[in-house]
Amino acid sequence: MNLFERYLSLWVALCIVAGVALGHLLPGLFATISSAEIARVNLPVAALVWLMIIPMLLKIDFGALGQVREHWRGVGVTLFINWAVKPFSMALLGSLFIGHLFAAWLPAAQIPSYIAGLILLAAAPCTAMVFVWSNLCEGEPHYTLSQVALNDVIMVFAFAPLVGLLLGVASITVPWATLLLSVLLYIVVPVIVAQLWRRALLRTGPAALRRTLHRLQPVSLVALLTTLVMLFGFQGEQIIGQPLVIVLLAVPILIQVYFNAGLAYWLSRRFGVAWCVAAPAALIGASNFFELAVAAAISLFGLNSGAALATVVGVLVEVPVMLSVVYLVKASRGWYEAGGATVAASNDAPT
Question: In angstroms, rounded to a whole number, what is the distance separating the alpha carbons of residues 56 and 148?
Answer without folding.
Answer: 14
